[in-house]
Amino acid sequence: MAALTLFRSREANAFHELVMEVRTWWAVQLFPRLREEYEVRRQLAEREGRRVQTPEDVALLFSNSTLYAYFCWLERHVQKSKYSSSRWGLVAQIAREPQTAAERLKAGGPLELDPKLRVPDYYAAHDIHQHPGNLHGDANAGLVYEASALSIHPKTKKNELHERFIDLVRREGEFEKVIDMGCGFGKSTLPLAHAFPRAEVTGVDVSAPCLKLAAADARNLPNVSFRQADARHTGLDAAKFDLVTSTMLLHELPEESVDATLAETRRLLAPGGVSIHLDFRTEDPFWQFVMYGHGQRNNEPYLEPLIRMDLAAAYRKAGFEDVRIEPFAEREGATDPSNPFWRFPWAAIIARKPA
Fold first, then answer.
1. Is 67 exposed, middle or buried (0-12, 13-18, 19+ CB in 10 A)?
2. What tens digit of pLDDT does each residue of 219-248 get?
3. Which residue of 42, 110, 182, 329 could cross-link 249, Cys pair, CB 3.0 to 4.6 Å?
4. pTM
5. How many CB atoms lie within 10 A of CB 56?
6. How far apart are CA 243 and CA 319, in angstroms?
7. 1-355 belongs to which homologous superfamily?
């Protein structure tokens, strides 16, 4: 793997390269062993007449597993070290390089901040991803989140997920007015603006630090703007957009906020407009069990409720039609059942507002 160059400090880059190597080992070496142990335990249980059909059944299989305990411990503490190591963690190291941070955050594309916006209680209550203070907590939060994203998906090329998401969006049509909800530092908004240069693309998020970074990176993109707003009620005009998207937003919302966000999505869309939200879905009990645990270890308390939620029914209740939930491959071969490595069970939820 090429050396990381996140920082000016060689020691800090070496630390984060080590963090990424450990996480990659966890994903491509340790996780396959966990799956092998699951199959052995499942087959033994079924020979004894015990069916394994739910994530609760899987939890019973692993109740005395040393390997699973180690798997959980390593995931939790690699993430904690990445963010919060007092010497080389992302928060501490970015704070040590104020000139670099200031250069990255220079004013860029159009940005509308709302000083009166109250961050939702559910958002402020948790350090999502183990990010200290969450994504709104300090001026460098967007830079910290961006740096963290470089080591989330082992074996996936940088930006590959979002490039593939653009391919999916293109299959649904050409679009002229686009809203990207929960846009963060612009990880999906900027690719959308590049892919649809004739479209007006607006990124929406509650985090001012993330939006400032997104706008700075969009300074040479004339067709994109950013707005600080809650996805549940953006304050934008109704029925003016032909595409509403998000990536990794829904699983950060309580169930009632998912419903409110879907209602707002429908309100924003013009008749016949398309909604494409990319998030996590799985019906496999092993993967449900692993993802529920991941949500606990990564301080994402609404991940399990989302996976348990009947999303297709929620979309229909919100007034959508032609609802499709499709597996999404973030890299070539990722959704192949024989793929042994850790990955998130991505799915694209695609729906249309009735014409």
1. middle
2. 999 999 999 999 999 999 999 999 999 999
3. 182
4. 0.94
5. 12
6. 16
7. Vaccinia Virus protein VP39 (3.40.50.150)
Q: Dihedral sign for Cα 219, 208, 149, 147, please.
A: positive
1 pLDDT band (50/70/90 cuts)?
very low
CA–CA dist 38, 62 (Å, integer) = 8
| CA distances for 1 relative to 17, 88, 154, 157, 308, angstroms | 9, 20, 11, 11, 37
Q: What is the identity of the amino acid at 36? A: E
One-letter amino acid for residue 244 of the chain? V
Token pair for 207: 């985090």
Residue with tokens 């109704």: 238
Per-position DSSP letters for 123-169, written without gaps between them: HHTS-GGG-TTGGGSSTTHHHHHHHHHTTSSTTS-TTHHHHHHHHHH
Q: Which residue has the tokens 């079924």?
A: 46
The total number of residues shown for the chain amounts to 355
